[in-house]
Amino acid sequence: MADRLKQVSGHLTNSYSRGLLHDEVAIITGEMHGIGKSAALLFAKEGAKVVVSDLDQKKADDVVAEIKAAGGDAIAVSGDVAADDFPQRVLEATIKKYGKLNHIVNNAGFTFDRMLHTTPDDAWDIIQKVHVRAPFRLIRAAAPYMRIKGNKENRSITNVSSTSGLHGNVGQANYAAAKSAVVGLTKTICKEWGVFNVRANTIAYGYVLTRLTQAKEAGASIEIDGKKVALGIPGGRSSVTNTAPSAGGSQAPPGIPLGRGATPDEAAAAMLFLASPLASFVSGHTLEVTGGAGI
To answer: Residue ranges of the Ketoreductase domain (predicted)?
Structure first.
């Protein structure tokens, strides 16, 4: 670990032969076109063997192909994280291929926005099922591979929350409740599994440039339980583009001191930090990745 920590004074390695997560195994769920994809590529670049999961088999396969083309190691296990058989399928594939598990990143999710007084039961229930029940069931199923006394390997669980879960948000009673629950779940894991040297943290994202923040009028959607759910924000990101330092400036979302939304790569970097030895004494924490919004 000391050798890895020396990298703080320089660059993260560009080689797959070593890195912050060298020879560690990580399951990353969801968004293999956004934050999940960026995280999978970044974890692999830092030496991890990555188990890529997405609802869309092709997206998962494409990310695995990209990792392998760069010399990394990854497998794809597609499917609905809320399905009853999902935890067992992804864990069996992981252990069969790599023999161990170091990290779980529960990133899969979506929004199903309605004003509270017009929110139907199904819009409430599916958000709780995907954002709370699914991470809980995957973590519970992973217990035999993580609750190992005396194991000193770097191991962690990262659950994705949102500023909606910390502060609430108009039109997102279902999402805000679910993302708030994730924080409590994570703190409990921290207290129960710390004795097994497993760290558990939450990331609360603010405005990240993904399908969930693009204009709803763009027509992006996801199919859940046979129902099409529209993604995006009405009138959102139609005029707000990537204003990361490497890109040209444009209209910034209001209330963000940095004056822009985060890129998926910036969002994924927070996941890497919490999984890496750089955060070896960080557990039970909620890391706000917001560009200063909500302070």
So the answer is: 24-196
Residues 165 and 238 in one domain: no
pTM listed for this prediction: 0.84
Residue 57 CB neighbours (<10 A): 13
Task: Please state, as a whole number, how many other Cβ atoms lie within 10 Å of the Cβ of residue 170.
Answer: 10
Q: Which domain holds residue 281?
A: 2-7+16-206+263-287
Please give the average pLDDT of every successive group of 10 residues along the chain, which has 295 residues. Answer: 48 59 97 95 98 96 98 97 98 98 97 95 97 98 97 98 96 97 98 98 95 52 58 48 42 83 96 98 98 91
Q: Clarify whether residues 137 and 194 are in a common domain.
A: yes
CA 279 to CA 62: how far, in whole Å?
30
Catalytic residue among 98, 145, 175, 205: 175
β-bridge mates for residue 29, sequence order: 53
| 175 flagged as catalytic | yes
Rounded to whole angstroms, the Cα distance separating 5 from 91 reads 29
User: Contact 107/29 with Cβ under 8 angstroms?
Assistant: yes
